[in-house]
Automatic annotation (TrEMBL):
InterPro entries named among the record's database cross-references: NAD(P)-bd_dom_sf, Sc_DH/Rdtase_CS, SDR_enzymes, SDR_fam
SUPFAM superfamilies: NAD(P)-binding Rossmann-fold domains
Protein's name according to its UniProt entry: NAD(P)-binding protein
UniProt xrefs under Pfam families: adh_short (PF00106)
Keywords, comma-separated and alphabetical: NADP
Any one GO molecular function term: oxidoreductase activity, acting on the CH-OH group of donors, NAD or NADP as acceptor
Length: 253
């Protein structure tokens, strides 16, 4: 049974964009480790979603009976029995090591797939252009430091924490979630001058992944920096915020 570790599962790509759902549901034999910063809140979110699906199933059965159909409606699709939720903070060295140790206990010391999804994205400075940091140098440096700490340092330390488990696998696959925001062709062609700290840190992440790929190539470990395109991971954001992202991602030429 293959084992998956998803670091950064609480929101965004990790949960709302289906990583956890898809991997856990595609095969009940998959062992999925969800590394989250707030396990209790995360479990509550899963429970609420599961209950909503159960309610939907009941309603579907009622509707089916009324229509005298044989179909009993949709079944609950969340197989929680193969998902293990453990604590892990990308900005905490001790929690990363502890997460790897707990994972080893669950999987027998082996991890086949590692997906590092955690991210720091500065919303207050998201739409600021380079010249707008004149007289805002401290703001820029503070935001950049945090972005680099999580998006680069956090990934590096997560790779290192789980590498001993990856090396024992016969599969050995590692993916870091990067962004088109770091793609130079896109930046130039779309005149995409905002989102500076985030894009800079993701560009650094791409280089970091290449460094790990070079280091572990002869050990059979495949590293990939993966970006999925434009994805709405801010469902509760203000309309003007989401409109601004759409302008950047979809309408510029």
């Amino acid at each position: 049974m293959p084992s998956y570790v998803i670091v950064g599962t609480s929101a965004g790509y990790g949960l709302d964009y289906q990583f956890l759902r898809t991997i856990s549901e595609q095969d009940p034999q998959n062992v999925v480790i969800a590394v989250v910063r707030s396990p209790k809140e995360f479990q509550a979110k899963l429970d609420a979603e599961d209950q909503a699906k159960v309610d939907a199933e009941k309603q579907a059965k009622v509707d089916a009976e009324k229509q005298a159909k044989l179909d009993t409606g949709a079944r609950c699709q969340w197989p929680q029995k193969n998902v293990h939720i453990i604590y892990g903070d990308m900005d905490s060295h001790t929690s990363r090591k502890s997460a790897a140790d707990k994972t080893a206990e669950i999987t027998g010391g082996v991890v086949d797939y590692l997906i590092v999804n955690a991210c720091n994205n500065s919303l207050p400075t998201l739409f600021m252009k380079p010249a707008e940091f004149v007289d805002n140098e401290d703001l820029y440096l503070n935001e950049l430091t945090q972005a680099m700490r999580t998006n680069v340092g956090g990934n590096l330390f997560a790779f290192n924490a789980f590498m001993r488990l990856i090396l024992k696998s016969n599969i050995k696959r590692v993916a870091a979630i990067t962004s088109a925001a770091a793609a130079r062709d896109f930046i130039f062609e779309a005149e995409y001058s905002e989102h500076i700290q985030y894009a800079t840190s993701k560009a650094a992440l791409n280089t970091l992944v290449a460094k790990f790929a070079a280091r572990y190539k002869n050990d059979g470990v495949l590293f990939v920096a993966l970006h999925t395109g434009f994805v709405d991971t801010y469902p509760n954001a203000p309309k003007n915020f989401r409109r601004g992202l759409l302008c950047i991602g979809l309408t510029r030429r």
